[in-house]
Specification:
Length: about 300
């Protein structure tokens, strides 16, 4: 076994990403974070959908599921409800999460399930060789949009805030220390936590100028509980599509600690109704329509 502590999470299966893929940074940041949280491999659950990013749980020996395209969140919610004692982390991509999985994302955020969602956002479908995704900019020329993408990009951080997620952050895979910091903050937060990781595809889209344009929201004194400011900062990342000199904000965009997660909402309801029901049949009797059927 390697002397590097975080390597105890690896199962020996070599990652199948392209050489120098930005996803290696996220994998390393995540395993280091798990190690610093003192979690054994059997004390965490990782869930993914389909795509390059969703391969990540396949390289780890933690509990986990590699699910269908767009469906990691329903599986993660089920895992969370079944095992509320261990953290549930979703690793997904922008195509997986925001195309076929968009409705799941909206309602998981709205209900504030206590899960951490790490979106490796390369703004394209890379595994299937460069198609435009929901987050691709207008005019993006991929294999299915040779004349340029026509529709407006979907901004995941804006969407997460507006849908009711209680913590929303953004990072960039070119800065491992910052990615790790955002994952750590998300895991420490009780509620639906999104980490939107800008992770350019090295095979199809280099975007080498990104590091020079990043600025840290916390260093600028951004108020994370100010919704109007959060929405404004969330929107700035796509201003850079039109203005190549525009800065790209990273850090915690939105955070509310006074929003009960779904688990705690259920506990509150059960506490308020303690002693009201002696069995499941009592609940059925209360809900059953008082209708008599003629024989």
């Amino acid at each position: 076994m390697s002397e590097i502590p975080q390597n105890r999470y690896m199962n020996g299966q070599p990652p199948s990403w392209c050489p120098e893929c930005s996803y290696f940074t996220v994998l390393s940041a995540l395993t280091e974070c798990l190690d610093e949280h003192g979690l054994a491999p059997n004390e965490v659950c990782l869930v993914s959908g389909s795509g390059c990013s969703s391969r990540l749980p396949m390289f780890l020996n933690t509990y986990g599921m590699h699910t269908l395209h767009g469906r990691p969140l329903p599986a993660a919610i089920g895992a969370r409800l079944a095992r509320p004692d261990i953290p549930v982390i979703v690793t997904t991509g922008d195509g997986d999460l925001l195309s076929i999985g968009a409705a799941h994302f909206v309602h998981a955020a709205r209900k504030n399930f206590d899960i951490t969602v790490i979106c490796l956002n390369n703004r394209m479908y890379a595994m299937t060789k460069n198609q435009a995704s929901p987050t691709s900019p207008v005019g993006y020329k991929g294999t299915t949009t040779p004349y340029g993408k026509l529709s407006a990009p979907l901004n995941i951080t804006e969407l997460a805030v507006s849908c009711g997620a209680s913590m929303v952050s953004r990072s960039c895979a070119y800065d491992k220390a910052h990615v790790k910091k955002m994952i750590d903050a998300a895991m420490n937060h009780r509620g639906f936590s999104l980490v939107d990781v800008i992770a350019p595809c090295r095979a199809f889209d280099q975007q080498k100028d990104i590091p020079e344009r990043l600025y840290d929201l916390q260093a600028k004194g951004h108020a994370v509980n100010d919704r109007e400011s959060a929405m404004r900062e969330a929107a700035r990342v796509y201003d850079s599509d039109q203005d190549k000199d525009a800065g790209i904000p990273v850090g915690i965009v939105w955070k509310r600690d006074d929003m009960l997660c779904f688990d705690d909402q259920v506990k509150r309801v059960l506490g308020e109704n303690k002693g009201k029901y002696s069995s499941l049949d009592d609940i059925f009797d209360e809900l059953r329509p008082n209708v008599k059927f003629h024989e």
